[in-house]
Amino acid sequence: MGKGIVYDKINKHILCSYATDIPPYVIAYDYDRNYIIVKQRPQYKEYVIYDRINYPLGKNYTYYWIIIKRNKEVIGPLSYEDFIKKKQIYNVPDKLKFKDRICNH
Questions:
Q1: Is the backbone of residue 72 left (phi > 0), alpha (psi -120 to 50) or beta?
Q2: Does residue 100 register a pLDDT over 70?
Q3: What global pTM score does this model have?
Q4: Looking at CB atoms within 10 Å, which of 22, 29, 57, 72 has the fewest?
């Protein structure tokens, strides 16, 4: 995925050494050398480490995240509408698609 960024297949989350981790449950992701896009649905199980993450629609919704590698920035959690807007703002290429990497293992 990139330097300092790892997808944990067992716990289904993304660990980022320089910014906010993306908590379980990561449903899908894709990446290139500049960006990572993530589709995530929060687990009901409470993880103390993730209490600082504000899910504006509650934990029963699907959220989206963007990691901008060059800026070492993690943006999210986002609603789908906000995700599309941020993709345009940061010029995330349309070739990045969630269907390319479904996290079902």
A1: left
A2: no
A3: 0.83
A4: 57
CA distance readout (Å), 92 to 22, 40, 47, 81, 101: 18, 18, 30, 15, 17
- What is the DSSP secondary structure assignment for residue 4, as one 8-state letter? T
Local confidence band at 25 (pLDDT 50, 70, 90 cut-offs): confident
Tokens linked to 87: 């993709």
pLDDT, greater one: 29 or 23: 29
Per domain, the residue ranges of the chain are 5-100
Q: Are the C-beta atoms of residues 18 and 2 closer than 8 Å to each other?
A: no
Q: Which DSSP helix (H) or strand (E) runs through 73? A: strand 73-78
CA distances from 88 to 13, 73, 84, 94 (A): 25, 16, 6, 9
CB-side exposure of 80: number of CA atoms within 13 Å? 4
Dist CA 98 CA 102 (whole Å): 7
